[in-house]
Design goal:
alpha/beta; transferase; Glyco_trans_4-like_N; glycosyltransferase activity; globular; Glycosyl transferase group 1; Rossmann fold
């Protein structure tokens, strides 16, 4: 079976990139012939790039074309690409949709713009043979807005934990993390306004006033659009006298992350909005109990599987309480870790890749 895989490459700290490479590696290990262009799809928003994809698909004749989709990544000409695929390509098309419509609608004030966006996405998705989503909420949203009958839910894969090649002690020393005599709290992911770091800083003040000894490690790249936001965060940390409580590392290569996971007592995801989170699944992979806000698909994973504490979004007091409760209840942490182990087994990358292969085969058999 030949699968033409369209996503963002190479890995650049983007969650979709991490997700894609994880799935691709597992599919290859199961004998699937993967074709992918090593370009950064997220930066390719012109019709010529989509034309190159289309021409390659026509020439290489893959059985399946699998697209990792967000409107901001594929650009305004994507509906045209999908129409061309429907008219001229013999490949089956699978789209994995990573963001809810509301993620874009909230930024559009004029009713006409909202209507245009909904029309754009409906065309983009309806010409796919299957649209995959990771949460019940996302499924219901696509059903509500577009009435699609080609939606299926598939679980977000939990990545396989990696071993560091350079030695944990060496890596920790490089980042100044080799001698932390307190509890460590990990924030991981690109630094954007929807990640809620300002509320984590406010919660850090409350924890400091309680006399809690801790260190918050912040790992994540800073997109150009978030540079002012990042400056504001640094200003708050300095203003509140929290310099000794935060260790901001910026972007850290994947090969070094296992060392940081190894010293993290808990993870925190103080998001104000999210559909799904690669970061959460990385923490699950490394068996790190979490404190998360009640948004998107993350709450639907944490609560039923009992792997952490859920708090209100945009509520520093509740966030501080959740962190304090988790750090000070070792029995809870042990319970969460056992549940994290079970979750790793249930939704491993290997099992989710097997589900993809079954889906591909079923799709191809339907055409016979």
């Amino acid at each position: 079976m030949k699968v033409y895989f369209i996503s963002t490459f190479p890995t650049n700290g983007c969650g979709i990139s991490e997700y894609s490479l994880n799935i691709i590696n597992e599919l290859k290990s199961q004998g699937i012939n993967i074709i992918s262009r090593k370009s950064n799809f997220l930066k390719s928003k012109n019709p010529f790039n989509l034309l190159i994809y289309f021409l390659e698909i026509i020439l290489k004749k893959p059985d399946i074309v699998h697209i990792q989709y967000t409107p901001s990544s594929v650009g305004i000409f994507f509906p045209l690409f999908m129409i061309l695929m429907k008219l001229f390509a013999n490949s089956k098309v699978v789209i994995t949709s990573h963001e809810k419509p509301e993620s874009y609608l909230k930024h559009l004030d004029a009713p006409i713009l909202k209507k245009l966006f909904l029309a754009y996405e409906k065309i983009s998705l309806k010409f796919a043979d299957i649209v995959l989503v990771h949460t019940d909420e996302h499924f219901e949203k696509l059903l509500k807005y577009y009435g699609l009958k080609n939606i299926q839910k598939i679980h977000f894969p939990i990545p396989t934990p990696q071993k560091t090649k350079d030695g944990i002690k060496h890596i920790l020393k490089h980042y100044g993390l080799d001698n932390i005599p307190c509890d460590t709290i990990l924030f991981l992911g690109a630094i954007r306004p929807n990640k809620g770091l300002e509320y984590l800083i406010d919660a850090a003040v409350i924890l400091k006033n309680k006399g809690i000894n801790y260190k918050i490690i912040v790992v994540g790249g800073i997109p150009k659009t978030s540079k002012n936001y990042f400056k504001e965060l640094l200003g708050k940390i300095n203003e509140y006298g929290l310099m000794d409580y935060f260790k901001i590392l910026g972007y850290v290569p994947d090969k070094d992350l296992p060392a940081i996971f190894a010293i993290s007592d808990i993870g925190v995801l103080p998001y104000t909005e999210i559909t799904q989170s690669q970061t959460l699944h990385q923490m699950i992979a490394y068996k790190i109990p979490v404190v998360v806000t009640n948004v998107g698909g993350i709450k639907d994973i944490v609560k039923p599987n009992n792997i952490g504490i859920i708090v209100k979004k945009k509520d520093p007091g509740n966030l501080a309480e959740g962190i304090f409760t988790l750090l000070n209840n070792k029995n809870n942490i042990l319970t969460f870790k056992k549940n994290l182990e079970k979750l790793n087994d249930a939704f491993s990358s290997k099992k989710i890749a097997e589900e993809h292969v079954s889906l591909y085969k079923k799709l191809l058999n339907e055409g016979k």
